[in-house]
Amino acid sequence: MRDLCLKKAEHERFVHVKNKLVGKVEKDSVYSLRRVSVHPSYRIRDVYASEELMSFARSFLCTCVASRDVLSSVFFGLRMLRVLDIIEIKFPQFPTEILHIFNLRYLAFSFDSKQLPSYISRLWNLQTLVICSASIKYVPAEIWQMAELRHVKFYDAYVEESDWRGLVLEKLQSISTISDPSVRFLGRIPNIKYLGIESLHQFDLSHLHKLETLKFSCYSSSTPVSLTEFRLPPSVRNLSFTRCEIAVEFMEYLCEELPNLEVLKLRDCKFKGVWDAEQQEFSKLQFLLLEDVQLVQWQADESSFPRLRHLVIRRCSALEEIPSALPWWLQLH
User: Fold this and answer.
1) How far does the chain reach from its first CA to its final CA, in angstroms?
2) N or C end: fewer C-beta atoms under 10 angstroms in the chain?
3) pLDDT per position as a tens digit, 211-269
4) DSSP states of 44-57 as a string?
5) Burial of 57: CB neighbours in 10 Å, binned 0-12, 13-18, 19+
6) Neighbouring residues of 263: CB distance < 8 A, sequence distance ≥ 6
7) Where in the chain are the domains?
């Protein structure tokens, strides 16, 4: 089926895949190609040998092994490119040749460095930035001056402080994962929908009225962090907590203040006391994950989880039993 799809894509001139399994395109169709994908079974030097192919490409995805010298030549030939995904290739430093691709809208790459260079802000058309690197620890303040930026994804990085001077990132919709963001920074992202935070502190995010997904973790802490003062907007649908201390009052807060909650994931968390959900109603919750959770007693009745469809319990050795009153159609994993 995959081979059939690739051949059909070649025939329709939707995408050109370079590997040993897919035949070459006819020379007169090269000028119509807009999307190029290079697989590990093909050499990137052979791709770049066709200069007219590279000059007309709008999307370029590469998962093959390539040196920086070869890729530098390729980058200079991709002036019209809008999508560049080379995340499988790790660079020792940020490839400055990318800065010549002014039309980039999407950039995904990986490199070993503790700090992202400030001059990446020259890519002023960029809308999505994905960086796969555990080495990066600091994100320069200049990156937030990229007016078109909508989606940012890091492994785990600190946001450098700035005077901001009234800067509001109105187009930013998703960002993850940032460590210990300041209150000032969180006040500059009013339209955020997806937010990933790694921190030892609690936050009041109730002002983020469009927030739908929050992933909060405390990996750097030796003990779980309490969530007694954590506040969220009612727009939240997907919620994930890792390595936190969950009080009974906090579960009551989630039930009462998050009427749209559909997905709740708790990993490596510790419950304080009994989770008595008999007086609670998670009216829209459909998916519940309990993984490595220190919970002994869990009580619930028929009205506690009326729409729950999937329950996943992993390595919760202290849990005495699963409430028998859960919906009969529930899928257990």
Assistant:
1) 30
2) N
3) 999 999 987 777 778 888 899 999 999 999 999 999 889 999 999 999 999 999 999 99
4) HHHHHT-HHHHHH-
5) buried
6) 237, 238, 239, 240, 285, 286, 287
7) 16-274
**CA-angle at 229, arms to 322 and 267, nearest 5°:** 35
The per-residue pLDDT for 52 is 56
* Cβ 105 vs Cβ 124: under 8 Å: no
Beta bridge partners of 228: none
Spatial separation of the C-alpha atoms in residues 140 and 121, rounded to whole Å: 9
**114-170: per-residue pLDDT in tens?**
778 888 889 999 999 998 876 677 788 888 888 899 999 987 777 776 666 667 889
CB 280 within 8 Å of CB 303? no
The encoded tokens of residue 124 equal 């002023």
Cα four-point dihedral sign 122, 123, 128, 131: negative
Low-confidence winner among 29-38, 286-295, 304-313, 315-324 (lowest mean pLDDT): 29-38
Residue 190 has pLDDT above 80, yes or no: yes
Tokens of 224: 């779980």
Contact 129, 152 (CB under 8 A): yes
- Label residues 161-173 b or e (16+ Cβ within 10 Å = b): ebeeeeeebeebb
**How far is the C-alpha of 299 from the C-alpha of 276, rounded, in Å?**
5
Domain 16-274: CATH superfamily is: Ribonuclease Inhibitor (3.80.10.10)
**What secondary structure letter does DSSP report for 268?**
S
Give me the residue label for tokens 């009969």: 328
333 exposure class (CB count in 10 Å sphere: 0-12, 13-18, 19+): exposed
Whole-structure pTM value: 0.85
182's tokens: 């300041």
Phi and psi dihedrals of 242, rounded to 5?
-130, 130
Q: How many helices (H) and strands (E) does the chain have?
A: 6, 21
Distance CA 332, CA 262 (A): 17
